[in-house]
Protein 1
Amino acid sequence: MIDIKIAIIGLGYVGLPLAVEFGKQRPVVGFDINLKRITELKSGHDFTLETSPEELKAAQLLSFTTELDDLSACNCYIFTVPTPIDAHKRPDLTPLLKASEAVGKVLKIGDIVIYESTVYPGCTEEDCVPVLEKFSGLKFNQDFFCGYSPERINPGDKEHRVTTIKKVTSGSTPEVADLVDALYNEIVTAGTHKASSIKVAEAAKVIENTQRDVNIALINELALIFNKLEIDTEAVLQAAGSKWNFLPFRPGLVGGHCIGVDPYYLTHKAQSIGYHPEIILAGRRLNDGMGAYVVTQLVKTMTKRRLPVQGARILVMGLTFKENCPDLRNTRVVDIVNELADYDVQADVFDPWADATEAQHEYGITPVLQPALGAYDGIIIAVAHHQFKTMGAAAIRALGKPEHVLYDLKYLLPAVDSDIRL
């Protein structure tokens, strides 16, 4: 393999673990426009908790910078920047295209650009490559080349790491595809799957989470039905799960940077070619409505018990999009908080994992440091952090008034210890 010096563009939940693993093998420059993030990493700390100080120290060939000029010696650029959706649920390629513009300014003949960010099929070659060509003055597949190797990071998961998750790879020419595949095989012990084209690799990524989204939507719909029938959903799922090929999905809020976002990239592309995707969009609508449904259930239960709703004080336990992880991206717990506000309810959010500054900046929510004992008319366990599980039912109940409603959205407690379960 040619002498490759890597630049990782974007040092978040995806980019940093990748930079660390490559940094154990060969020279790597980690680039991010966030000076605070770079300063933090240089001090040996990762606020995402995806890498430990020991892991950062072990990557002896890894350096960090915010300066574009520091990438001039690199010849392989791996993009791990966010690809969110906008307020209208349309793909927002701004971070990806801005990063492509920046790298285009330092791109040289013979360089390789690899994208890991989630996109729709065709985005790399149709949207990103023209930007690279424009700002570099170079010609694609003649002067520079591209690859696509979709990220499969699962934030907070200490078992499935970048090295232990099989990696899909691809390249813009057969030779580049081989090179990209060999490069990732240096660090991925689980091996790789070389896709036949960049578009195939892009499509594979976007359907991974679309499939999960649709399956969760089905379980959410079943939960709505079973609740009307006054049947315990978890009991039904446990019974059905006794069959060997029943898929173990659970109902709940669907947020995060992947499952709640990726389907919109695929539906956007489908609609652009004149196809209206029925099942995918139906699943998205159902999953996006779960926060409002949770609050409706809570309000109905409080009303039946003659507990006043207007002016009530509700504790929402958890804000991050998943348990035991500080990641607040696209958390759907905010749907619950916003829906409660429509009922003129005061919602206190408690989350020992969430960064208070980020929560305020992103959602206008300032989490409480410690919930008051005996203060709440309702309690919603929205995220299954291990701290909440350790508390147990008695300690959680103690946060409520003598008469209150406990909604266990995550099946954290035994059925007998909660008033409502999804």
Protein 2
Amino acid sequence: MDIMSHDSRRGRKGFAKVKNVGPKLIPFAISSCLYFMLWLPISNPSWFSALVKCLPTLCLAFFILAHSWGVGKTHPHSKKFVLGLLSSALGDVFLTWGDQGFFNHGVLAFGIGHVFYITALGLRPLRPGIALLLLLLGIGLYGAIYPCLDTGSLYALGGYSAVLTLMSWRALAQARCSGYQRSWGALSAAAGAVVFIFSDFVLAVDRFCLPLPHARFTIMSTYYLAQMLIALSVLDDPDHDSLWKTH
């Protein structure tokens, strides 16, 4: 079978999938726009502001469930992605009251969410080279904010950085990029992991080191984008791996 022809058909199939699931992403798009339109002050947290903040993430969890129901089959690890999104939504709630002493609670909730993503992404292929590069990147980013951290956040962010690095390694390791092994969903998850690293680093710098211009907009827009890209990874055919191996 001609590989380029196979890739072309796979590209068209991937585009068709995105086009078909577009309507299911409308709640996420509306709730994201609602967050930025309302732009509720973070200095006066409330349950309403917490709901507005976590609603896009909850909509992505619903998107995964709706997609599974719509196609009549479930991605093998969709439940783990849903649990990861729900943990992230809980983290959003805690971070709404981050200045009232719940910041580390939010960090823990997001860390648990990344653990669910790790279990969904799996541990094969290993690709130790990617692990080493991300380890060096993680150490560098954590080292950049280390002098700014207080005692209470020192270990919490250190542990979170390790889990985020591990999740990013598994996402990038899954992003196969040759021949029949190319996976649109895996590439989407990998892009989401990279955006997640950027978003969290901006948050850490802005909170602990120095105020950044338009930080809140940058953090939240990239955060929602990262979660959407990770959620879109369930568009892959559940039997993808077995299919390409048979050709």
Protein 3
Amino acid sequence: METLLLSLLASLLLLPAASGHFEVHSPSKELVAEVGSNVLLPCTLTPVLPEAELEVRWFHNLFTNIVFLLKDGIEDRQHQSPAYRGRAFMKERPTSGNLSLNLHNVQLSDAGIYNCFVENTTTKDYEEDSMELNVVGSGSPPLIAVALQDSAVVVSCSSDGWFPKPTIFWKKENGDLDPTDIETNTDMGELIRVKSRILLNGSSEGQVYCGLRHPVTGKETGLYVKVSDAIFPRTSPWAILFWLLLMVTIAVSAVMAWLLYSKQKRSEMRLKEKDVHIEQLKWEVEWRKVSTKKESIFFDPLTAYAGLIVSPDRRHISTSKTVQNVPQNIERFDTEPCVLGQTSFQHGTRYWETEIHEKTGKFWSLGVAVETVRRTGGQRECPENGIWAIRGTVDGYYALSSPPEPIIVRSRTPRPQIPGLLNDQGTHEPERIKRVGTLLDYENGRISFYDVDTFEPLYTFQAQFPHPVIPFYYIGPGISFLSVERESMDFR
């Protein structure tokens, strides 16, 4: 009897712990995506577990290089790597069992190993699977150029936008041709430009073909060219005279064409400058109308995240290097660096302005939120969560709709002091937005944002407000906001 009990006890100890067991699986171990495209990184969870028990972590190469992080059903952007902010989104909720990740605007630096890591925070069990993402550049169709060199003709072929380096080759009707040289270099985005040349001594080669083949996708692009007998130099003085006359004619035609083109471009530029000036005047008229309703907004310190500092006059807010010891209350944001205004609105038309000081950072949001907006845990800023806002990042500006929409800042020309045409500002990098005006039309469900320095309208949301709304701010590291007082309004 004692032996039977010991055997039964041993069998029970060896039984697998079925509770909490799950599997994470990626059906694709190797993916290929083009630069600038969107790619889906597949991952599934079986069986489906409650969101509150899960931590879902997507990371790139290193566990700490977080692409996307979901804890207890809440997206955590505080620990997300800056390179993936605004580019990485889960396709569905974990309750569906689909943990696939959408990665937008793929870059060369995105290449590498991606891990789908899932931990059951209750049982401390975890599983993961990985896949490799290869990023390629498909390249542009080749450009062909023909030039004379002594008694021969040089045909060059070039193409850019490749990664990795393509194979470039030449063919003729009866075989391959050997290039005289092959040049490669990279552009600002680390994409490869390749150029090759061949030397033709006579038109007997017939048609020649320049082709490029991608080493990963196998995609091939190419172009045929035929060099006429008339192009090859001859020792006949009549041929020399013909070519001289042809070159003079081409040169004169090119000069005439250039003069006509330059004149046309100058006319187009003047018309464009007038159109831009008229558009700016329209922006200014609209801005002056809404700015007559300007009022002061004060930050509510009772709602401010503990890592934010609100000035005594409640008009200035900035980030702190340490988390402050502040009284806890249900109104305060506990994980996100956010703050609300002191006054909520449920009727009428309101307008206020906010100065943005980007000291060492370029990540912030501002807009309006419903008065009942969630204050605990991380959340995605979007109309579905009761937040209508725009965001500034190092890459540009976005309206936080679903999905986010890029905001094209069409002009950063300062306000004209003397009426007239705008001057050409060159091709320098545009200045950052320094002051944003917010217009709230509650009854008509409209929230509009303006660049106060140029009068330019940035973006407009249309919504139906279920509750009173209140000014909303997200202050990233190295950012400070100043609420512009009503008395400081000017009409320059």
